């Protein structure tokens, strides 16, 4: 298992960062490494961002020294979304099948989590994990079971479908919330108008970006913004003080994941586009 750590950055510090420093601190470039589980332990609400890419062998989610835990989910929960073809995950001997863009929530205390390969379908498992104070049932969530909202308009280049998969309107969790936003053809802007939320942090994972296309992710304080150019299958960490918005050279899909003290999806501090600097 491949793992690294990212420390929290004060809002006054990031203003001095070069392009390379912004990318080193906030961008996660290598989510899917063949036959590996790759993860980043962040010091923002202790969220772990990672991916599993089983190709020739099953991959077991294991603990590591920094967790100081007997097993990965001893004090944690995890949300997983499959961004590849149909795949299977076993949790303490029970098998769960995930189609493309379907989710699996695994509660605290589950000991054996195994991601299985499939040569024909090529599943790819993206995940977020956060500390958990209670045990909630493990279960899958399909696209049909998601809390789905249509939002935006083609006239403002942000017509999109939001699918809330692992949120408290669908199932109970301690901290982790995850879902998908799918941009319609001809739309490129996500999360516009932007917002911050001081009570939780967020991570964005971009996928289904066509070859030779890219997404520009905007971050930072509303009056002191920065940008990071991102490619397919990359993630970016968003601190509580930062906006999190993006625009692509094509339409795309992204996974938003959150951790913090508030599970109210609508809890956000909006920023008017004309106020951005």
Automatic annotation (TrEMBL):
Job description of the protein: Catalyzes the isomerization of 5-dehydro-4-deoxy-D-glucuronate to 3-deoxy-D-glycero-2,5-hexodiulosonate.
Gene Ontology biological process terms, A to Z: D-galacturonate catabolic process; D-glucuronate catabolic process; pectin catabolic process
Binding-site residues, Zn(2+): 195, 197, 202, 244
Requisite cofactors: Zn(2+)
Gene3D superfamilies according to UniProt: Jelly Rolls (2.60.120.10), pectin degrading enzyme 5-keto 4- deoxyuronate isomerase, domain 1 (2.60.120.520)
InterPro entries for this protein: KduI (IPR007045), KduI/IolB_isomerase (IPR021120), KduI_N (IPR027449), RmlC-like_jellyroll (IPR014710), RmlC_Cupin_sf (IPR011051)
Enzyme class: isomerase
Cofactor binding mode and count: Binds 1 zinc ion per subunit.
Reactions catalysed, as given in the entry: 5-dehydro-4-deoxy-D-glucuronate = 3-deoxy-D-glycero-2,5-hexodiulosonate
Keywords associated with the record: Isomerase, Metal-binding, Zinc
Alphabetized CDD domains for the sequence: cupin_KduI_C, cupin_KduI_N
Known EC number: 5.3.1.17
Keyword Zinc: yes
GO molecular function: 4-deoxy-L-threo-5-hexosulose-uronate ketol-isomerase activity; zinc ion binding
Provenance organism: Ohtaekwangia koreensis
Family the entry assigns: Belongs to the KduI family.
Protein name: 4-deoxy-L-threo-5-hexosulose-uronate ketol-isomerase
A UniProt-annotated Pfam family: KduI
Pathway it works in: Glycan metabolism; pectin degradation; 2-dehydro-3-deoxy-D-gluconate from pectin: step 4/5
């Amino acid at each position: 298992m491949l793992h690294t750590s990212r420390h929290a950055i004060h809002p006054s510090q990031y203003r001095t960062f070069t392009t390379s420093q912004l990318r080193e601190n906030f961008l996660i470039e290598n989510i899917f490494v063949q036959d590996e589980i790759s993860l980043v332990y962040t010091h923002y609400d202790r969220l772990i961002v990672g991916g599993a890419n089983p190709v020739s062998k099953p991959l077991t989610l294991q603990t590591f020294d920094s967790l100081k835990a007997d097993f990965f989910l001893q004090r944690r929960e995890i949300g997983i979304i499959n961004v590849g073809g149909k795949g299977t995950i076993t949790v303490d001997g029970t098998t769960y099948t995930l189609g493309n863009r379907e989710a699996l929530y695994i509660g605290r205390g589950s000991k054996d989590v195994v991601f299985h390969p499939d040569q024909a379908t090529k599943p790819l498992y993206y995940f977020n994990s956060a500390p958990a104070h209670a045990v909630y049932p493990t279960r899958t969530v399909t696209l049909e079971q998601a809390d789905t909202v249509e939002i935006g308009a083609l006239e403002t280049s942000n017509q999109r479908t939001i699918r809330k998969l692992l949120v408290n309107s669908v199932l109970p969790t301690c901290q982790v919330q995850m879902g998908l936003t799918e941009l319609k053809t001809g739309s490129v802007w996500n999360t516009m108008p932007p917002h911050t939320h001081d009570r939780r942090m967020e991570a964005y994972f971009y996928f289904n970006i066509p070859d030779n296309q890219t997404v520009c992710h905007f971050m930072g304080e509303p009056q002191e913004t920065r940008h990071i150019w991102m490619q397919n299958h990359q993630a970016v960490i968003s601190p509580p003080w930062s906006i999190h918005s993006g625009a692509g050279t094509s339409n795309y899909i992204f996974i938003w994941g959150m951790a913090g003290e508030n599970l109210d999806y609508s809890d956000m501090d909006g920023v008017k586009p004309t106020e951005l600097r």
